[in-house]
Design a protein that fits this description.
Strand content: 35-45%
Radius of gyration: 14 Å
Strand order of the largest sheet: 1-2-3
Shape: globular
Number of strands: 8
Order of helices and strands: EEEHHEEEEEH
Largest sheet: 3 strands, antiparallel
Distance between the termini: 31 Å
Number of helices: 3
Length: about 100
């Protein structure tokens, strides 16, 4: 039997945290700085393709880097935040959001 995918029932920014209530009633709360520093995009984390691995450039965070301006759903599996410094290329799967909280 395939595993069920947890989906958000509600997502809110509360002070300096992203709070997610899942469809099973459980909650995930992630500090916004942890969320931004954990951005999974190629610019922030680097990337590997068949020919070469590319290391990420050093990040120059500012206070705006940790201000969540908004987010949108990506398909039925992720969200894509927009940060105060204009960064918006990270796609955070629902599973990854849960892992960011548990890494605290």
């Amino acid at each position: 039997m395939p595993a069920t995918v947890m989906r958000p029932k509600n997502i809110e920014t509360i002070n300096h945290f992203l709070a997610v209530v899942w469809d099973d009633g459980s909650e995930t709360i992630v500090d916004l700085e942890r969320l931004r520093r954990g951005c999974p995009c190629a610019v922030c984390k680097g990337e590997v393709n068949i020919l070469v691995a590319s290391a990420p450039a050093p990040q120059n965070y500012t206070p705006a880097s940790f201000e969540l301006r908004g987010w949108q759903y990506v398909g039925g599996y992720a969200i894509q935040p927009t940060w105060g410094d204009g960064h918006a290329s990270g796609i955070y799967s629902f599973d990854y959001l849960k892992k960011l909280e548990s890494a605290a």
